[in-house]
Amino acid sequence: MTEPVRVRFAPSPTGKPHVGNIRTAMYDWIFARHTGGKFILRIEDTDVARKKEGALEAIMESLKWLGLDWDEGPDVGGDYGPYFQSQRLELYKAAAERLVAQGDAYYCYCSPERLEALRKEQEARKQLSGYDRSCRNLSPQERAAKEAAGIRPVVRFKTPEQGQTSFHDLIYGDVVFENNTLDDFVMLKSDGYPVYHLASVVDDHAMKITHVIRDEGWISSVPRHLLIYKALGYEPPQYVHHPVIVGADRAKLSKRHGAVSLLDFRDIGYLPETMFNFLTLIGWSLDDKTEIMTREQIVKNFSIERMGKTGAFFNTDKLDWMNGVYIRGLTVEDLSDKLLPFLDKYLPPEIKRPLDVNYVKQIVPLIRERINTLKDAAAYADFFFVDKLEHDASKLVDKKMDAETALTALKSAEETLSSLENFDRDELENTLRPLADDLGIKAGQLFSVLRVATTARDATPPLFETMAVLGKERCLKRIKAAISRLNNHRD
Ligand code: GLU
To answer: Are residues 354 and 423 both part of a single domain?
Structure first.
């Protein structure tokens, strides 16, 4: 029987997580749920200098927003904790000491100044940079002298100078490294903190991780990890590296391309369902055509075999399209609830708050075909809310009508509309079509001037529906304002 799958997401709390990191967590989670395994959250917080306030919260918030629940982790606990590396320092120290004792690692007393000088020298000679192993064979006397001088050493791994280290990646296939390209890397710093390589190996082993899923940027770390595994006598996990996400210019997705953290996408008004579906498809596919898939379908059908080696392209147009599809799949109630905070945030400040929820619910069916993000709604629908419209007189008289005709049309419309009882869609249509005939203009001309008068725009949702939602009082007030605007314009 094979062991149950255990995968981990191991972020360093250094800021708001990049959407690419969260995609890695998604693959971990999907794979764990697909196989009935466990998804573990481990916080790699040993790099004290890079730690940022609020980063842990942002990581957890991102995972929760996407619905990626973890089975073990800092807050939920588990049998293999603690899940903060900063609370596991003893384990790394013990592993490093064991490696020193068995001759696979050694104490190095070189000063940062010496290492810097060495680096410069190597650079000048155009040599590969790396530690020159000067402390590798210190005699016990030499060591004792350094200790007596109070120098606190680092622990370096004794990397073999010949041979190869290779592994089979489940996506990239066989990967081979020449050992002579690796130096005797530091595992434990002089302050007792481990470097990533040591901590990662110790924890992946201790936490019984079966598959390490992460982006291709970490492939170059694998030979170091394998050397440590071998020296400790541990079985390494399976490796699954996937391509990093790139923008339209094929460069790694960065701030230059726009939003990069998952929470930024949330704040623009992309739905979690969209992000889950979209991010999964950057690098995995069911077949060569299926785009819209529920979380359940993805979990059910997921396989590492169908993860790609190339083309992790972040297509913003596709993201917008997909978000539109998910937005239109929501009920009016649901979409209204989701839109409210966005309207509240992005509508002009002079609009009275709190916004009327029932009014928003009437607007939603009219705008949902036309928005791709929740944030879009404010710019698209602000005319429903503002108190006073700024009419553009030239737009009021557009469409082959002179100002006189437009004025007459608006005045007659005002008069006719003020006597309407229901002011609903059908009544508006049944009244306004004959009115155009009476005025001797085309229905389209009348509707166009009324559209501009009631919304100050020439493109809106369907006119009668829009007017019905605006309501009689607002429409008449706006038509009156348009009339006086035109009067002034003519004078
Ligand atoms: N702490 C590393 C990161 O920030 C983890 C890399 C890994 O998954 O091994 O992504």
So the answer is: no
